[in-house]
Amino acid sequence: MVSRRTALAALGGTALAGVGLTAAWHGDAPLGEALRHALGVAGPVPAVQRAVVTVERVHSHYRGCDVDLLTMTPAGVPAENLPMSLLLHGRYGTARKASPGGMAEVLVAAVSRGQVPPFGFVAVDGGDHYWHENVPGDDPMAMLLEEVPRWLAERRYGALFACTGVSMGGFGALVYGRRRHERREPAKAIAVIAPALLTDWAEMAERNAFTGPDQWASLDPLKNVDKLGATPVGVWAGDRDRFITGTRQFIATAKPAVASVTPGDHNDTLYRKVVPDVIRFLGKRV
Fold it and tell me: CA 249, CA 109: separation in Å to the nearest integer?
């Protein structure tokens, strides 16, 4: 598990009481459990079910600021050369809030049971501008393409084989898949959960994420399905999701490898329901 010093530096002293780390420092709770709570991961589980989570602060030239770099890997699996999937957070999210629906436990359990080969996730702070350069000098997509692979290599992780995204992160994951295809370095899989695919510019304009309808149209996955190439895509959403109209439109046009619309809303209840299938989808393509 993460060392006490690493966790303290990553989470910051002012946040300790709020996330339960004070108890961990005094021996009332395992540090791993406290850190997992801080990251929004479910509570106490047997040691075999715990993921190895690390958080570092790194400087992104392309974003022009420091960002959290979070890695999540199965316990007992060497990190060296471990294949990794990006994990893109939603709007108002951060790297520490990117993991949906008990994903850490599901990943570790699937690997330990031999259901999927070992792989991990890496998350970074991407801001709220739908993972593209809306503000000059702040380009989260360039960070994903240029800096994250280098950061992983410096820490001896393996290559990025996939991208997984939730809500706004789903939009970003589809744009990332397009960019990888354009660079002739296609990803092996793109997994999107409850993707924030809007169909109305007036609604999108309220998010202040694009300079205008033309920029949005140039990046919108709904209008650029053909630019994804042959990368396998998986889509999971609830039938009451506020973005379900755009999601259904994308499914009908893109005909993804997996298209799952199940009863549910745009929330963690739905995410927990679909995460096991997402892990299986990714695991088949490591």
Answer: 34
